[in-house]
Amino acid sequence: MRPIPLHKLLAGIFATNRTDPVTSVVTDSRKAGPGSVFVAIQGERVDGHAYVADTIKAGALLALVTRPVEGVSPEQQVLITDPLQAMITMGKNYRDCYTPTLLGVTGSVGKTTTKEFCAAVFSAFGPTVKTQGNQNNELGVPNTLFSLDETTQYGVVEMGMDHMGDLARLTWAVQPAAAIITRIGVSHIENLGSRENILKAKLEICQGVPDGGFVVLCADDDLLTRAQIPARLRRVQFGIDNRFAQVVAKEIRSSAQGERFVICDKQNGEFEAFIPALGRHNIYNALAAYTAATRLGLDPAGCAAALSGYQTTGMRQRITLHGGMTMVEDCYNANPDSMAAALNTLAALGKTNGGRTVAVLGDMLELGDISPKAHFEVGVWAAEHGVSLLCCCGEQAKQMVEGAKKAKLDQAFWFATKAQAAAFLAQNCRAGDTVLFKASRGMAFEELFGELYRLLDEPQK
Predict the structure, then answer these.
(1) CB 214: neighbour CB atoms within 10 A?
(2) Which region holds residue 401: left if phi is over 0, alpha if psi is between -120 and 50, else beta?
(3) With contact defined as beta carbons under 8 Å apart, do 146 and 129 qualify?
(4) Strand order of the sheet with strand 154-158?
(5) What gap in Å lies between CA 140 and CA 300, rounded to an integer?
(6) For residue 255, what are the β-bridge partners?
(7) Which of the 8 DSSP states describes residue 60?
(8) What angle do CA 62, 3, 144 make, to 5 degrees?
(9) Distance CA 442, CA 124 (A)
(10) Is 268 in a helix, a strand, or coil?
(11) Is the dihedral of CA 352, 353, 357, 361 positive or negative?
């Protein structure tokens, strides 16, 4: 964060004439220091107000609080009603100091991977800022904006939501030149009630795009292909199956190293592309990045070539080898759409490798009332994708086993603990198998495959 005068950072929050240079905005009291503004947030386990005095002692200029803190002078604390809105407002005030080309990315699935593809492309053309990890909420988006400076040419900001209005607030701060909506799935259906309401919430990102800007949509998504965007914006579609899209992938060739395909761009021509990622869903993510970058004026051939610079993050489709088996760790998140994509990838990789396919699946969290049906359907899909062995862990994943057996996959098992699942896999998997691990992040599946690797790597007695 470059220094910004206090009065400018706090515009719209608190009127002051102070010109002290602010060099950081923090919500973690341990990061406070000279030049900091501390935002005290009441969390489920930690109340930031308990640490306000400590931040002032560490040199913070002042603290934003929702209630007065004893022992701290009134001049060093500002009373506010909504700390998250304050973060967003400060993010916007800071963003207004710079003029990079920013791209907003949202969607039910694939937004973090799409963001990484966009960053790979933009980085080939100039200094680029991107959202770190999936920090896409009211805290993460402002923190991304605080990383801008005068050298930044491009930025990719991932924006998530839980409720109506969330994206409207975030896009107001980001002011993206263009936006991508990847897919409309069932994540957050517990809060919003239907995919149609999820679409409405995602379309709020359009509010921050300036007149004449554009929105990039997946033409193979049943809701996005007929979504109504504001008349003041341009619509650009990408896809694989919908040949009416402006940007289409064709001649797809899969391998264990990644996907090769031809980008057919009706505006710019055809370009060979390679991505070091597996699966049809990643081709969609790459197409979204190419489409946005080219419509922002970047060289099409250079954009297509830059897709190969994509690097996976976290536990997204990390491939390792253990005991002669190909292990696909894809445990960052899980919902019905990403499960279907992962099973497609497993089937394709299994054909390439020539061995059995093993799916190790866990609970998909935060699905609300549709959870039992959704988990049951995943089990059916596993059977339909030719999975040789299904191993499930998690209370809700019991329904996956039921669905698989209903679809005539007899080799489907449920385990009460991850340790039991790992022991079973160690005994029943063999060299040549391709093994997929997929579950919501809250299931901590790294404990399962970590234990499996330990068992596989143990010297045989």
Answers:
(1) 20
(2) alpha
(3) no
(4) 128-130, 154-158, 101-106, 178-181, 214-218, 234-239, 247-255, 258-265, 269-275
(5) 31
(6) 258
(7) -
(8) 90
(9) 35
(10) coil
(11) negative
Kindly state the tokens that stand for 190: 């517990």
Cα gap 342→51, rounded to integer Å: 44
Buried b (16+ CB within 10 A) or exposed e, 269-303: eebebbbebbbbbbbbbbbbbbbbbbbbebebeeb
Buried b (16+ CB within 10 A) or exposed e, 29-62: beebeebbbbbbbeeeeeebbebbbebbebebbb
Sheet architecture: strand order including 62-65:
24-26, 36-39, 62-65, 77-79
Q: Where are the beta strands (DSSP E) in 107-226?
A: 128-130, 154-158, 178-181, 214-218
Instruction: Single out the residue of 438, 413, 446 nearest to residue 427, CA to CA.
Output: 413
Copy the structure tokens of residue 365: 């969290």
| pLDDT tens for each residue of the chain, 461 residues long | 999 999 999 999 999 999 999 999 999 999 999 999 999 999 888 999 999 999 999 999 999 999 999 999 999 999 999 999 999 999 999 999 999 999 999 999 899 999 999 999 999 999 999 999 889 999 999 999 999 999 999 999 999 999 999 999 999 999 999 999 999 988 767 788 899 999 999 999 999 999 999 999 999 999 999 999 999 999 999 999 998 999 999 999 988 788 999 999 999 999 999 999 888 999 999 999 999 999 999 999 999 999 999 987 666 778 888 889 999 998 888 889 889 989 998 998 888 888 899 999 999 988 888 999 999 999 999 999 999 999 999 999 999 999 999 999 999 999 999 999 999 999 999 999 999 999 998 999 999 999 999 998 876 54
Rg (alpha carbons) of the chain, rounded to whole number: 24
Report residue 347 as tokens: 């089937």
Instruction: Give how far Cα 99 sits from Cα of 83, 145, 149, 354, 453, Å.
Output: 26, 12, 9, 51, 48
Distance CA 107, CA 377 (A): 22
Tokens found for residue 209? 């795009």
The answer for 301, left when phi > 0, alpha when psi is -120 to 50, beta otherwise, is: alpha
